[in-house]
Amino acid sequence: MSAQPASDCLSRHASDPTALTLLQAVAARRAQPWHEAALLAALNANLAHARTHSPHYRRTLAAHPQPLPHVAALARLPLTHKDDLRAAYPWGLCAVPAAQLARYAESTGTTGGVNAGFVTQRDWLLNHYSVALAWADVLGPQDRVAVAVPYELSYVGADVDRACELLGASVLPVSTNNAACSWRQLLGLLQSHRITTLVCAPLRALRLVLLAREMGLDVARDLAVRRIVCVGEALSAAKRQRIARDWQAQVYNHYGMTEALSVALPCAAGALHLAQERFVFELLDPQHERPLSGPGTGELVLTTLDQQALPLLRYRSGDLVRLSPTPCACGRWQATIELLGRVQDLCPTAHGPQHLSALDALLLEEPGIEDLFTTRAQDGQVHISVLPRPGQPWAPTRQRLDAAVAQHWGGPVQWQVQPRQDWLQRLDSRSKPASALLVQPPSPARSSP
Ligand SMILES: [Zn+2]
């Protein structure tokens, strides 16, 4: 353990009075649950700001009386959809003058269209403090962190950077697909620089295991990485266990989006806590689009409480989450979720509706394929792209997979066998490995018979 606590580093970085006040405000909010009156006041202040300054909400909230009489009345307001953001691209939801903006990012969804994200300096700092206070349970000044997530037109790389700096950790900024540092070079750096923590997408962590083997390295034996923070893709329990086993590392999850920055944060117990100090969250029944009244599985809907540049009201994330009914062992008051993936990947099966992430366990158990599969629901069918292991014939592998799918999934799937080098090159050349591969339309020439 370090002699210098992470919290000391945080306070030192926030030595200017304005920043220190913000840090203390975030720390106080994270320490205990909202009182109803304080939450209602924050919510109404955000609503008033949005209706006054955001062109989109000036229009959509005009017919809705405010302030809200209680927090539950939020459910009477209209939902905000991704299409609203796309239609408003780039500035239609901006609620501050351009001169107050500190940073810009945008994202392209798997279904097309571009979402813009923008922050004031205060938005950016509030987010960093929220992230750093959460990560302080996991990281400290003794850590050397390789950040292998996108920096370009994105928040996530810089967001992780700042949190690590605030905690006194040293940062190796790698990004994803760039000419300066190939994935092979990254593995060399992980070894030579005794990197302790790797931040990357889950599929990237699995790909690096395979690439290391090709280089004669064993990631658990030859590297010092003992923590992996997975960002940018859903992380199923099965995938998490596989990454932890292969790397002999603790695996954490961190969930954010361009529109709202960091939304759910890891804790020392390995759970993923909603950032309820910065948002009000709701769950929407994915089939009937009605709010769920308690824990369960639904689409995550968020309302910002203190975002100046891009206030969001009842924003449908498009992500399916499972809300835990029990408190986390770490003692934090914020609820914990499991991020399952896209709502569109919830499928009807013989065992009832199941999310595609439920296939991860059976696919990871199959010895005939690499761990680098991708799954996608499209046009009413489930498509699974797989990469057979060298020397493993596809026919018996497929027989075993079909039997496992019939038993545990209960619906038909379309297998796609990928040409090895083409698949690996595509995986290595994209910023978001899973989504980059998923957007490839099924190719009849590559389909299995
Ligand atoms: Zn926890």
TrEMBL record:
**Ligase among the record's keywords?**
yes
State the SUPFAM superfamilies in the record: Acetyl-CoA synthetase-like
Q: Name one GO molecular function term.
A: ligase activity
Q: Does the UniProt entry include the keyword Glycosyltransferase?
A: no
Q: Which Pfam families match?
A: AMP-binding (PF00501)
- Please, which domain of life does this record's source organism belong to? Bacteria
Q: Write the record's keywords in alphabetical order, separated by commas.
A: Ligase
Report domain AMP-dependent synthetase/ligase positions.
109-267
Instruction: Give the matching PANTHER family.
Output: BLR5969 PROTEIN
What is the protein name stated in its UniProt record?
Phenylacetate--CoA ligase family protein
Whose protein is this, by species?
A: Roseateles rivi
